[in-house]
Amino acid sequence: MGHTEQRFLVTGGAGFIGSHLVRFLLSQGQVRVLDDLSTGTLDNLREVLSEVEFIRGSVADPTTVREAVAGCTVVFHLAAQVSVPLSMEQPVATFEVNVYGTQLLLEAARQVGCQRFVFASSAAVYGDSPRLPKRETMRPAPISPYGWSKHYGELLCRDYYRVFGVPTVALRFFNVYGARQNPRSQYAAVVPRWITAALTDRKPIIYGDGKQVRDFIYIDDLIQGIWLSATHPAAVGRVFNLASGARYTLLELLRAIEHAIGYPLQPEYQPPRAGDIRRSYADIRAIQQALGFQPRFTLAEGIRRTVEAYQKEAAAA
Ligand SMILES: NC(=O)c1ccc[n+]([C@@H]2O[C@H](COP(=O)([O-])OP(=O)(O)OC[C@H]3O[C@@H](n4cnc5c(N)ncnc54)[C@H](O)[C@@H]3O)[C@@H](O)[C@H]2O)c1
Q1: What is the reported pTM?
Q2: 146 is catalytic
């Protein structure tokens, strides 16, 4: 694959993960973004926007999707309705974006003959089964419309590969963190919420006892895994966990943030939230063995960089 011929489509490219992927891909070829700016912003692409072909529209619109995929060699499908609580309120709207949208993209990729189709799935497909660590061979048991929609998206990828030979790969992201993750949404993830609380002299809120276990993966490591899955021949037709393989409690995360900002934080404890998964972490041997994926960032280092990015952003605002 010569670099000059590579034309990438990133759906959801104005979002947190997409905006990092776009910056990386610009060093590898031409980049087009399809995003409806529902949770993402053009500000996330600020200094690279002039180098990107940006299409504002929905992945659930067939005409827009066909236009966006036309001429692309690799599709990175990251656009989604990403909120679990919102998916409980609006399952059908969630399915329209996450399932129908995925099928439209797969169909367009088939028509065009794309070399690779990378689908952003989620640890949510595992649901709350007590078996740990999560392995790709376990039976999916999602417990929310968001989780079901990602599971169905994976099945569509699998069958577009099996039946039509479209070279798909599905990646189950665990808890991703890094710069530009939105702290403002009511559904924001814990890392941006706590860092922003710390930097604005508010108390980070801990739901429950803080001993919940998660696998936090730093954005640069995630991008490495996404790129391997887009380029490595052994990725085709597979589903992989994409995570750090390490496990941390929320209290350890809080300590890493304290360490990075340089002073102690006084968290506020609130009752556990309904539907919160107690322990979730990944077995990453499959992607390590098949693609040579190797996470490079400890939580301490990733959090240090993330806090620094939020501090810079706050100083510039
Ligand atoms: N952040 C995580 O920890 C995590 C974990 C597991 C899976 N994922 C998956 O990774 C992907 C990216 O997530 P993120 O954290 O960057 O979230 P994000 O909300 O920052 O990005 C999603 C992007 O998709 C866009 N979008 C939403 N609906 C759209 C539509 N109908 N048409 C076009 N664009 C649309 C949004 O505007 C946004 O820019 C998602 O598929 C998400 O489910 C993320």
Answers
A1: 0.97
A2: yes
